[in-house]
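lol so apparently i was supposed to do this last week
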Amino acid sequence: MTSKTQTLLLLPGDGIGPEVTEEACRVANHVAPDLQIETAFFGGVSYDHFGTPLTDEVMSRAKQADAILMGAVGGPKWDGVPRDKRPEAALLRIRKELDVYANLRPAFCFPALAGASALKTELVEGLDIMIVRELTSGVYFGQPKHIETLPNGERRGVDTQSYTTGEIRRVAARAFELARGRKRDSKFAGVLSCEKSNVMDSGLLWREEVTKLHAEQYSDVKLDHMLADAAAMHLVKAPKDINVLLADNLFGDILSDEASMLTGSIGMLPSASLGEPGVPGLYEPVHGSAPDIAGKGIANPIAAILSLEMVMRWSLGRPDIADSIFAAVGKALEDGARTADLGGSMSTRQMADAILKHL
Ligand code: NAD
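anyway here it is w/ nicotinamide-adenine-dinucleotide bound
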């Protein structure tokens, strides 16, 4: 453990965000009482108070924290708000300003939940994929990006897919490093890099740069390439073949959502977004604010608790605590702990209690 006090900035957000992060906070207080946790408004609740979904003050506190744990943002209440003031604008700003370019999304199937997957049990039993998605470039950010009116009166929407060699290499390096720590004996045992090099120049550059970086620095890690559409098929045909899946922003978005459905419920899935060393990591459940169940106390807190597990592992240098949180979630599920999304009737608090019992 380091001697400097570590700070976690908690941004509960909207809807079920505050409900699930409260439970993650209880777990954090239990396993790491020395961790300093600060809380701030973020998303719709910040807009309601300050007229902006993310104030400069909170942005600057985020930059100074060791890690940031977000709940979720958004909801119908803010549907009519201008786009640049919507809760989701806060997410894009914080990711961009921290330049957290590597989005890690594990798709892990807890043994007790293998039967809850959309796929046959034998296809997902033991499933453990880490998806590394490029998060701050590509078609979501490339310029030009607009809707224009053509001389003939038709309208045209334009988005630009663009990647530089540096942007490709830094996220690929993350994937290779992760694969080094995740030895597997599967068909694609190292990094499986996905693009559309058959039809896209950015895809061709992606494949060339990943191949070059591999030869220069990571030849000890197995590297395979696959077209993104073929990878989408492989994920439902033989997902256990895959260890670390690397993809750009757009394909990574789609492939990680697909992979998440293999594991049971969206309420189980954490994520981490990492930048250069020294930049605080940004952690959040994959799910949104779930307005349909907000305020009922029935949301599954596991995605938030596993996001805390990733905080401990990737930002705070406390892998032993991370391991114990992960094991406690597995044991609670083995005990039969289930919230409604998993087919049970436990409340958010009861599920967290079932996990805390094993810590
Ligand atoms: P959602 O993830 O909020 O909900 C989808 C479905 O999954 C709902 O039926 C919900 O009840 C269920 N669900 C989600 N999390 C759950 C949990 N922890 N436990 C049990 N059930 C859970 O997605 P949506 O309905 O498309 O979006 C709702 C709002 O959230 C929108 O405003 C959207 O913009 C926002 N959103 C925010 C984020 C984020 O903050 N990162 C991500 C996605 C969506």
